[in-house]
Design goal:
Length: 295
């Protein structure tokens, strides 16, 4: 790709943070007491207090909290075994990655939920659980839940196209680019997009065809059939004309559709001729895959 990395990425001013046995960082305009109150409310979410529990499973616990007049989302990542802990020692805890990824996106002018603070704890020097406090981007809605009162299907496709162009021109990989992780809302005559779930954000030196195709397929598969295939195809054609694939647009499109079908998510592909042809094949297009991986 010919896109150039910004010459200088300026991150916001931050300060060290220590809460009990946990350490991390906070924005300078976010007080330690605010972070402590948000984490305390998060711990009590679902029992009592102002926090609302949004998710609670083996991977993470998420709550919405209002503290010091600020609406935030707290996401806690529990320890998940020694091997994952060793991996986090090399790449940073999940909360640290959200902090790094969110501020990296914002510094590049890409919409994201702003990380306000993060903390992590360790055991024998190995990360053993972490938590991050981010701004609550609601009342923006996930792209897969937007109705006509927010935007038409064509407008949703256009907003997602612009986001993809921003990401890939800036050489950014989100890691889990599902429509549920892209929040949309009205902004003037158009839509603004804000990314959430940022622990998989990466800033590689180069984006190859395979990485770009994978991101396109993740997003396409996660969009419900309300966004028609014609709008998806127009968005893909514009993307490919502005950021050409080395393997060729037709090979890339076939791979996007194939990967989308494999994910078996929100997109049925029932009205897509290419999807119908690929669905009838017993073996994937090995030649197309080989061509993309070589680029």
């Amino acid at each position: 790709m010919s896109a150039q990395r910004p010459a200088r990425v300026r991150l916001p001013e931050s300060a060290p943070l220590r809460l009990g046995g946990q350490r991390g960082r906070r924005l300078r305009n976010v007080g330690e007491s605010t972070v402590a109150r948000a984490l305390d409310a998060h711990r009590r979410a679902g029992e009592t207090g102002p926090a609302v529990l949004l998710k609670d499973d083996a991977r993470s616990r998420v709550s919405a909290v209002e503290v010091a007049g600020r609406r935030v989302v707290v996401k806690e990542y529990p320890a998940r075994g020694i091997l994952r802990g060793i991996g986090d020692l090399l790449r940073g805890s999940a909360a640290r990655r959200v902090w790094r990824g969110g501020h990296g996106l914002l510094a590049r002018g890409i919409g994201a939920a702003q990380p306000l603070a993060f903390v992590e704890r360790s055991r024998l020097g190995i990360p053993a659980g972490s938590a991050v406090v981010c701004e609550d981007v609601r009342p923006l809605r996930p792209a897969d839940q937007c109705d006509d009162d927010v935007a038409s299907p064509a407008a949703i496709a256009e907003a997602l196209l612009q986001l993809l162009l921003q990401l890939h021109r800036g050489r950014v990989i989100h890691g889990d680019l599902k429509a549920s992780h892209v929040f949309l809302g009205r902004r003037g005559a158009g839509l603004e997009a804000r990314l959430v779930d940022l622990e998989g954000v990466r800033f590689p030196h180069r984006l190859g065809d395979a990485q770009r195709v994978r991101a396109l397929a993740q997003l396409n598969a996660s969009l419900p059939d309300r966004v028609p295939d014609a709008a998806r195809r127009r968005a893909f054609d514009r993307y490919a004309s502005l950021l050409p694939f080395r393997c060729g647009s037709e090979v890339a499109l076939e791979r996007v559709v194939e990967l989308s079908l494999r994910r078996a998510h929100r997109w049925s592909g029932t009205r897509c001729r290419l999807a119908g042809r690929l669905r009838g094949q017993t073996e994937p297009r090995a030649q197309a895959e080989t061509t993309i991986q070589q680029k």
